[in-house]
Write a structure and sequence with these properties.
Strands 1-2-3 form a three-stranded mixed β-sheet. Strands 8-9-10 form a three-stranded mixed β-sheet. 39% of the residues lie in helices and 17% in strands. Helix 1 (3-17) crosses helix 6 (121-131). The protein is built from 13 helices and ten strands. By secondary structure, the protein is an alpha/beta fold. The chain has two domains: 3-168, CBS-domain (Roll), CATH 3.10.580; 174-308, CBS-domain. It is flat, with a radius of gyration of 20 Å. A hairpin with a 4-residue loop joins strand 2 and strand 3 (63-68).
């Protein structure tokens, strides 16, 4: 067995020895949203807390009702792009009406899967890879009442950072990512500065992507536009500015944007894991020496390789 294979085996054994609960910090807070909240109030709550996703709680039945994410807001945006006459209704639409809206446009509805917090971390990673979920709720049950308890939400990033911090074997994953076929190179959804925001929202809603690279006429990477950017734009301007170009939409982006994280096809998984250890990473844009976009490396690509590569 070569060094890379031994490292992968050690990391998998580590994942099997830990539970999902082990990944959680000593102190944390969780924001839960009642399904009776309006979309407008929900959006403000999410952005005020610096998050794009939260568990839903059905207070009538006292149970977990799914995981709201930026994808759901992209679906609502697409619904209104197709039906501008419905724009006034958005202020009164509640979270428990989302299923009807998403069904109308044929979109995937709110995610309801969950994992028990004391399941092995390996099982949780398996679930994330197979479902391609960006995050998974950890749901326990009160032994006395039988009621569900939302413990936390585990993200791909949190899992990979936990591995990067606790498994020195990640340093041995030195094969270049181009030799592992890790990146998505084909059928990439990209945009230019002149692309209409409505077209990007369409890609977010239809294909479930959360980020679109922005390139110039030579395919040189200029920026990225994220589902989170759409949410902040909606907060300030409502569901009405979808005719904007991406260039103009970027001018309204909050100044705290963390920037675009890139890698080259010659970088290794070890290099990417070190980047994850040091920075908050959601995906990496793979570029060549001239800065031209070659592909995207997502966190689920990395997790899939660790689990099954």
């Amino acid at each position: 067995m070569d060094t890379q294979s031994r490292a992968l085996q050690s990391i998998r054994e580590f994942l099997q020895s830990k539970t999902s609960y082990d990944v959680l910090p000593v102190s944390f807070k969780i924001v839960m949203l009642d399904t009776k909240l309006t979309l407008k109030g929900t959006l403000l709550t999410l952005l005020q807390n610096g998050i794009i996703s939260a568990p839903l709680w059905d207070s009538n039945q006292s149970r977990f009702a799914g995981l709201l994410s930026s994808q759901d807001f992209m679906n609502v945006a697409q619904y209104l792009i197709d039906r501008p006459e419905k724009a006034e209704e958005i202020n009164t639409i509640t979270l428990d009406q989302l299923a009807e809206i998403e069904s109308t446009i044929g979109a995937r509805q709110i995610e309801t899967s969950r994992i028990h917090p004391f399941k092995s971390l390996y099982e949780t990673c398996q679930h994330i890879v197979e479902s391609k979920a960006h995050r998974v709720p950890l749901i326990d049950t009160d032994p006395e009442t039988g009621r569900e308890i939302v413990v936390s939400v585990l993200t791909q990033y949190r899992v990979l950072r936990f591995v990067a911090l606790n498994c020195k074997e990640t340093q041995d994953l030195k094969i270049p990512i181009k030799d592992l076929n890790l990146a998505t190179r084909e059928n990439l959804h990209t945009a230019t500065m002149d692309t209409q925001l409505a077209d990007v929202v369409g890609a977010f809603s239809k294909y479930g992507v959360s980020c679109v690279p922005i390139v110039d006429e030579n395919n040189k990477l200029l920026n990225v536009y994220e589902a989170y950017d759409v949410m902040t734009l909606i907060k300030g301007n409502g569901f009405s500015d979808f005719s904007l170009s991406i260039g103009k939409a970027l001018m309204r982006r909050p100044q705290d944007f963390e920037g675009v994280i890139t890698c080259s096809e010659h970088d290794s998984v070890a290099h990417i894991m070190e980047t994850i250890r040091r920075s908050r990473v959601l995906r990496l844009c793979m570029v060549d020496e001239e800065g031209k976009l070659l592909g995207l490396v997502t966190l689920v690509d990395i997790l899939n390789y660790i689990m099954f590569g």
